Every structure is written in structure tokens, then in C-alpha cells.
């Protein structure tokens, strides 16, 4: 059978390509998921091959809609060979979205059973066609969705491309922009349509092609973008600036324009968008401040503010946030390899306390500071989304970062107590010697008061950073099931700040950790009653309890720990 396909190579008007059916690959796209194997022809198709962004291009046979271009075969194929997802499979998505039967009736689908597929065509080289199909099947991949980055540095795209590529989208440095400008030409089968992951001062969008359209909705892609089921992703029209030909991977360079609605279904056989809908996005404000002068003690700050909207999606939001944060920091003229950042921020979750972010990030182990900040922010989002109780409704994010043009960290070199013996309720001093990066040693004195309830014997005093104290709680949490959303937020907010020096008085009494709560000084009788929690891994028992904790704030990230022992009389 022969026919044609529609796609945009330049501009907004779909152009025809010739299509010749080579055969049918049964069950190639999952159980009962057949693919129609076709060869494309025409000036554009023969020059560019199968193009990233072409997925969803409608294929017509005998004047009837047969399906959507969706798969490619091989990486360096000499011929434009593609796989077509049958339109009948794509129509199932409409049923999941409670679509009326009118859409099914509007499309006449050529039945695969009507075609002679008992034998496969002989290849031009006279080789065994069965083995040829097997070779193709082994290298069959969805036609990539080009992911256009606008307002991002090359370093940002390079670092985070693998994160996006793992979801099946092809990162491509955007040449156009997400302008939102009017595009009077209506969408039609073969038009380019984009899914917006980030909009505003930075933009990330993935583009494929419209397969079918009616007054209420459209079908596109012919394969999943993320295969996330029900989604909310902004849908926009798009212009194709040009189609770049490459022997490895040709792709369309896209300029997204006005809003067209929202994608609401992302399924194995395609995506579905509805007109007139507005996807709920997460408003994000990123402020980056840097000193105008080198006098860090009394420096006037210069602040740049970035306002973006990020999709609310468990799989992609953490990566999108990491990418945006790194880009905002890495794109500053003041940024350098010695730079440190102080982060303060909030993640607002509907119905729950704000997730607090506070940390000092410095260059360590050759990792750029901006990348460390991005990973820290992404970690908070990942933990929020991984809770097993509900999908969080994040209503806003505010991040404020102050840049300091030096490595602002200290290591705890030594510690001592002002006395060797104490009595319960007595006050004394703990002294710590800190060594800054390329700086003179700093001596810090922290006043401490022993609890009146201390028993006689040895008292261990740990002088440490935040990570040393939080590490055991994180380890305990890893041994247990993931916490519900409220407990997850509480646990994050209880984590200590890394710009403080901690003095912890440790006794030999037993301590229990239950979700985000610490229960110190538990007698054996209480532990026996709670033993069922221990066996179910909801409780972790530790051999030491924290009798008291004291802090001293510093303008540095603190690393290391030291132990001091005194005698309680």
C-alpha cells in the first residue's frame, strides 16, 4: 500500500511525504501492539531521514487515517524507515479521557487484518527478510521528542541532558524562544505542537506532531513522552524554524508560540491534549545576589530575579528545578570556581507547613558549587514527591541565594571542655578550634549547661557539623518505609543547618527514632511495649541518647566532628 504523511519541515504549514507500507510488525509495541513498517519518500524525507519532532505525523493510506509515525529503526540508517502506531490504538487514549464515541466515528481506520501480512516483503538486497526485521526490531526506538532549551547555558544543557534523555526526550539547545506570541494559523493534522516543561525567563519545551484534531481535543506523538498517565502539561502551538539534517539524528528547531490548551493524557500509544484548559504550574522565584565590591563585610548586593513556571510532575519536576537553579547560578558573570552560595528558601505545599531550605554550599571534590546547590534543591523535591500517601500540590517556590567569592568552609580541628568534672545543672564552656580554607584558625567558645537529670558517670560531648548528627536519622529512614507527606516535610524541616556548630551531650540511655520523631532516654519497659514497632521497621533503636544540644552560628559551612569526655559527679 502507498499513501502519504504530513509534517512541518519549516514554518507552520504541514507538507506531504510519500509513504510505502513494507509490512506489519506484530506485537512490536507491546502485547497486541502492532506497528506498521513504512518507508518515507520525497525531497525532504530522503534528505533528512526520520526526524526528531516528526513523531505523531499522520499517515494516510487510500485517503484514510491509518496512524502516526512514532518509531525509527537504527541510528545511521541509509533509508527513512519508520514505524507507525495504528490510529485504533491511539483512540483508546480518548476512552481513558472519557471521550464521547464521536471521535471514534470520525476516523475510518484501515484494519490491519485486511492486509496480507502472512509473508513479509523481500528486501532490495535479496536477504532473508525475517532476519532483517529482527535486526530492525532490536534497534527500534521511539522517534525522539526534541527538548528545546531557551535561556540556558551550554554547560547547563550538557550537565542535565542525561537526566532528560533517560525519560525518552532528546535535549537540543533551543535557537528560538517560548515567546507566547500570537500564531493565527490553526492547528491541523501534521502541525507542530509543544509541551511546556518550564516557561518564563527560562523555557524547556518538547515538540512532536498532531495526528488527529477535533473541536475539543487532539492526539499527538504516537508514543509516550513520559508515559505518566494523567498529566497537566501546558500545550502550545509551534513554528519550525528549520529542520537540521544529521546522519546521526536529524531534528526540528522549534519556536513555541501561543497557548493552545493542556496535555492531559500521556500514554503508551500517544498523548492527548484538550483545548481551553489551563495546566496548573508551580510559580518559582529565584533571586541571586552578589556583592558589588570585594569588601564582604559591608558589601552592597546586586540582585537578579528569575520568574519561571515549572510543571507539577513527580518524575520531571525535580530535574526541571535542578536545571533551572543551576542555570540561574552558572549564568552569572560573578560566578567562578571559588564561589560559595548561601541558600534560603521555601517550598509551599498546599495543606502543609512550608518546606524550609537553608544551607551554605561550597566547592568540594571538584564539583561546581552551582551543581551542589541544584542537587540539594532537587533532593527536597524528590523526597516530597516520593511519599506514598498523596501527590503533593506545590503552590509556589521561593529561592534566595547570596554569592560569596571565596570558599566559605571550616573544618573542626580540635575541641575541649573548660572542666574535666561537672555536676548536674552546672554551666561550663566547650571550646572548638576551626580551620577555614586558606585562612587563620578560629577559636569558638560555646556556653553549655548540663541537664539536671544527668546520672553519674562519663558524659560524651560531641562537637560536630550538621551532617554528622543527621546522618544516623537519614540511615534509619532508609531502613524504613517512606514517610507520608506530612512526616516527610517535618523530617526535612528538622534537619540541622550546615552553617552552625553543634555541641551534643550524649548519655548511655537508649533512644528510639520513629518516623520524624526522636524519643530519648527510654526505659527498657517502654521499649518492650514498643517492640512491635521495631520488628516492623517503623522504629530504630540507638544505644545513645541526646541529653542536650547547643549551637553556634557561623558564616561558614562546617565540616567534621570531635569527641570530648567529662565526668559527671
Q: How does this model look, in words?
A:
The protein has eleven helices and 32 strands. The protein has 569 residues and is of the alpha+beta class. A six-stranded antiparallel β-barrel has the order 1-2-3-6-5-4. Strands 10-11-12-15-14-13 form a six-stranded antiparallel β-barrel. It has a five-stranded mixed β-sheet with strand order 22-32-25-26-30. α5 packs antiparallel against α6, α6 runs antiparallel to α7 and α7 runs antiparallel to α9. A hairpin with a 2-residue loop joins β27 and β28. The N and C termini lie far apart (96 Å). 41% of the residues are buried. The chain folds into four domains: 141 residues, no CATH class; 130 residues, no CATH class; 109 residues; 160 residues, no CATH class. It is elongated and about 95 Å long.
Outline the fold blueprint.
Elements: E1 2-7, E2 15-25, E3 35-41, H1 43-48, E4 58-61, E5 64-73, E6 81-86, H2 87-96, H3 102-106, H4 129-138, E7 140-142, E8 145-150, H5 154-165, E9 169-173, E10 192-200, E11 203-213, E12 217-220, E13 229-244, E14 251-267, E15 270-274, E16 281-291, E17 301-311, H6 317-330, E18 340-349, E19 355-361, H7 369-385, E20 394-404, E21 409-417, E22 421-422, E23 427-436, E24 442-449, E25 457-464, H8 466-479, H9 485-494, E26 500-507, E27 510-514, E28 517-522, H10 524-529, H11 531-535, E29 539-542, E30 545-553, E31 557-559, E32 561-568
Parallel strand pairs: 8-9, 16-20, 21-31, 22-32
Antiparallel strand pairs: 1-2, 1-4, 2-3, 3-6, 4-5, 5-6, 5-7, 8-11, 10-11, 10-13, 10-17, 11-12, 12-15, 13-14, 14-15, 16-17, 18-19, 18-20, 21-23, 23-24, 25-26, 25-32, 26-30, 27-28, 27-29
Amino acid at each position: 500500500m502507498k499513501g502519504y504523511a504530513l509534517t512541518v519541515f519549516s514554518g507552520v504549514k504541514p507538507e506531504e511525504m510519500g509513504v510505502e507500507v513494507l509490512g506489519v510488525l506484530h506485537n512490536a509495541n507491546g502485547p497486541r501492539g502492532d506497528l506498521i513498517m513504512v518507508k518515507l519518500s520525497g525531497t525532504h524525507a530522503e534528505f533528512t531521514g526520520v526526524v526528531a519532532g516528526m513523531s505523531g505525523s499522520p499517515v494516510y493510506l487510500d485517503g484514510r487515517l491509518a496512524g502516526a509515525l512514532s518509531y525509527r529503526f537504527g541510528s545511521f540508517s541509509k533509508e527513512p524507515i519508520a514505524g507507525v502506531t495504528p490510529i485504533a490504538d491511539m483512540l483508546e487514549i480518548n476512552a481513558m479521557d472519557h471521550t464521547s464515541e464521536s471521535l471514534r466515528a470520525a476516523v475510518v481506520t484501515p484494519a490491519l487484518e485486511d492486509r496480507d501480512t502472512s509473508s513479509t516483503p523481500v528486501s532490495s538486497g535479496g536477504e532473508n527478510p525475517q532476519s532483517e526485521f529482527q535486526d530492525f526490531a532490536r534497534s527500534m526506538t521511539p522517534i525522539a521528542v526534541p527538548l528545546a532549551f531557551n535561556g540556558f547555558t551550554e554547560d547547563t544543557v550538557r550537565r542535565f541532558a542525561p537526566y532528560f534523555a533517560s525519560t525518552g526526550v532528546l535535549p537540543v539547545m533551543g535557537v528560538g524562544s517560548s515567546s507566547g506570541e500570537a500564531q493565527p494559523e490553526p492547528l491541523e493534522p501534521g502541525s507542530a505542537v509543544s509541551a511546556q516543561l518550564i516557561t518564563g525567563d527560562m523555557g524547556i519545551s518538547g515538540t512532536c506532531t498532531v495526528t488527529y484534531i477535533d473541536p475539543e481535543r487532539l492526539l499527538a506523538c504516537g508514543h509516550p513522552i513520559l508515559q505518566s498517565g494523567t498529566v497537566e502539561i501546558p500545550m502550545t502551538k509551534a513554528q519550525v524554524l528549520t529542520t537540521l539534517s544529521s546522519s546521526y539524528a536529524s531534528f526540528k528547531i522549534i519556536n513555541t508560540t501561543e497557548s493552545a490548551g493542556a496535555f492531559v493524557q500521556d500514554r503508551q500509544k500517544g498523548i492527548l491534549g484538550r483545548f481551553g484548559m489551563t495546566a496548573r504550574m508551580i510559580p518559582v522565584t529565584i533571586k541571586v545576589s552578589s556583592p558589588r565590591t570585594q569588601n564582604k563585610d559591608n558589601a552592597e548586593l546586586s540582585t537578579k530575579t528569575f520568574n519561571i513556571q515549572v510543571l507539577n510532575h513527580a518524575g520531571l519536576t525535580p530535574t526541571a528545578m535542578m536545571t533551572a537553579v543551576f542555570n540561574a547560578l552558572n549564568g552569572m558573570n560573578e560566578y567562578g570556581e571559588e564561589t560559595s552560595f548561601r541558600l534560603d528558601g521555601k517550598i509551599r505545599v498546599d495543606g502543609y507547613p512550608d518546606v524550609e531550605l537553608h544551607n551554605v554550599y561550597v566547592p568540594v571534590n571538584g564539583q561546581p558549587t552551582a551543581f551542589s546547590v541544584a542537587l540539594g534543591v532537587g533532593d527536597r523535591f524528590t523526597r516530597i514527591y516520593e511519599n506514598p500517601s498523596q501527590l503533593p500540590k506545590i503552590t509556589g517556590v521561593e529561592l534566595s541565594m547570596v554569592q560569596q567569592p571565596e570558599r566559605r568552609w571550616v573544618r573542626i580541628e580540635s575541641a575541649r571542655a573548660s572542666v574535666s568534672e561537672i555536676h548536674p545543672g552546672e554551666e561550663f564552656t566547650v571550646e572548638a578550634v576551626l580551620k577555614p580554607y586558606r585562612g587563620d584558625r578560629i577559636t569558638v567558645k560555646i556556653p553549655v549547661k548540663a541537664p539536671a537529670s544527668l546520672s553519674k558517670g562519663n558524659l560524651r560531648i560531641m562537637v560536630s557539623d550538621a551532617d554528622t548528627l543527621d546522618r544516623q536519622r537519614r540511615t534509619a529512614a532508609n531502613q524504613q518505609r517512606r514517610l507520608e507527606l506530612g512526616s516527610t516535610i517535618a523530617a526535612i524541616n528538622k534537619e540541622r543547618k550546615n552553617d552552625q556548630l553543634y555541641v551534643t551531650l550524649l548519655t548511655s540511655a537508649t533512644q528510639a527514632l520513629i518516623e520524624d520523631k526522636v524519643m530519648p532516654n527510654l526505659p527498657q519497659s517502654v521499649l518492650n511495649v514498643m517492640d512491635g514497632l521495631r520488628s516492623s521497621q517503623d522504629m530504630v533503636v540507638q544505644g545513645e541518647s541526646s541529653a542536650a544540644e547547643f549551637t553556634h552560628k557561623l558564616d561558614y559551612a562546617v565540616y567534621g566532628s570531635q569527641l570530648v569526655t567529662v565526668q559527671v559527679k
